[in-house]
């Protein structure tokens, strides 16, 4: 296994979240650790950690001695979380345009350049890892520890929803282009432009998950299969 335990947990949480939001695991479904471990080709330990992570975001309900079940995912909850995150991240981007040091700006530009290669090659896992670094660099560049802490907390809470997006066809190049608008504004010191670009980026991430949550709640059209070829879930050991 070439992934660290934390990386495996994050990947597993994203895969379970995708199955829930896509309608494969409807509200009320009991999530058995052993069954999930077999489904995704992992041990029960990362499954347990992934379920705990999903529970903090309200996607599943975890109760002592009663196990975990899929919660009712409401569009209203997702909208509240994404709106909060969008506003906080946009503020971080605005402050970064004003406060980033020359070294921080160069590092952000370099990171964005490297991410372009992963986006073009559709390397979702590598891009997702760099995506965390990208947004973390924007938080740090704001030079406001309190704001960075709030932003990181919201990102952790929404991480399963956001990571699942990178499996959508064509999403990586679009995400990279949206990041490019943010980077360009920060590099030229355009605070208003950086704010608008980041807010736009986060709002585009929110849209597909609001649609998925409506499906999972039984308010939309039937969910499509997790894979177009109807194959089994991905083996997360690689």
Structural summary, described in words:
This protein has two domains: 5-73, Arc Repressor Mutant, subunit A (Orthogonal Bundle); 75-211, Up-down Bundle (Four Helix Bundle (Hemerythrin (Met), subunit A)), CATH 1.20.120. It has nine helices and three strands; from the N terminus they run H-E-H-H-E-E-H-H-H-H-H-H. It has helices at 5-21, 33-40, 44-56, 75-99, 102-120, 124-141, 145-164, 171-187, 191-216; strands at 30-31, 60-63, 67-70. The protein has a three-stranded antiparallel sheet with strand order 1-3-2. Helix 4 (75-99) crosses helix 6 (124-141), helix 4 runs parallel beside helix 8 (171-187) and helix 4 (75-99) runs antiparallel to helix 9. The longest helix has 26 residues, at 191-216.
**What is the name of the CATH superfamily of the largest domain?**
GntR ligand-binding domain-like
Question: Which range does the strand content fall in?
Answer: under 5%
Domain count: the total is 2
Strand order of the largest sheet: 1-3-2
The biggest sheet, with number of strands, parallel, antiparallel or mixed sense and barrel status, is:
3 strands, antiparallel
**Rg to the nearest angstrom?**
18 Å
What is the helix fraction of residues, given as a range? 55-70%
* Helix and strand sequence: HEHHEEHHHHHH
Summing up helix and strand content along with how strands pair, one would put the structural category as mainly alpha
CATH class bucket of the largest domain:
Mainly Alpha
CATH architecture identity of the largest domain: Up-down Bundle
By DSSP (H or I, 4+ residues per run), the number of helices equals 9
**Strand element count:** 3
Give the termini distance in whole angstroms.
6 Å
What is the CATH topology of the largest domain? Four Helix Bundle (Hemerythrin (Met), subunit A)
Shape verdict: elongated
Please mark out the parts with pLDDT under 50 across 5 or more consecutive residues, or reply none. 1-5, 212-232
Mean pLDDT: 81
């Amino acid at each position: 296994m070439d992934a660290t335990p934390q990386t495996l947990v994050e990947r597993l949480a994203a895969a379970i979240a995708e199955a829930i939001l896509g309608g494969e695991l409807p509200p009320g479904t009991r999530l058995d650790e052993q069954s999930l471990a077999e489904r995704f080709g992992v041990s029960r330990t990362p499954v347990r950690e992934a379920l705990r992570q999903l529970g903090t975001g309200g996607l599943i309900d975890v109760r002592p001695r009663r196990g975990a079940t899929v919660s009712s995912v409401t569009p209203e909850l997702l909208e509240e979380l994404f709106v909060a995150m969008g506003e906080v991240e946009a503020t971080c981007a605005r402050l970064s345009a004003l406060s980033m040091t020359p070294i921080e700006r160069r590092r952000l530009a370099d990171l964005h350049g490297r991410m372009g290669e992963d986006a073009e090659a559709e390397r979702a896992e590598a891009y997702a890892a760099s995506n965390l670094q990208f947004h973390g660099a924007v938080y740090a560049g704001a030079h406001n520890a309190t704001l960075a802490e709030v932003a990181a907390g919201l990102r952790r809470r929404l991480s399963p929803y956001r990571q699942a997006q990178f499996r959508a066809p064509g999403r990586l190049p679009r995400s990279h282009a949206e990041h490019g608008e943010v980077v360009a504004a920060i590099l030229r010191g355009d605070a208003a432009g950086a704010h608008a670009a980041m807010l736009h980026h986060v709002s585009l991430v929110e849209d597909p998950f609001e649609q998925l949550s409506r499906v999972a709640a039984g308010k939309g059209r039937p969910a499509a299969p997790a894979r177009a070829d109807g194959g089994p879930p991905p083996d997360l050991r690689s």
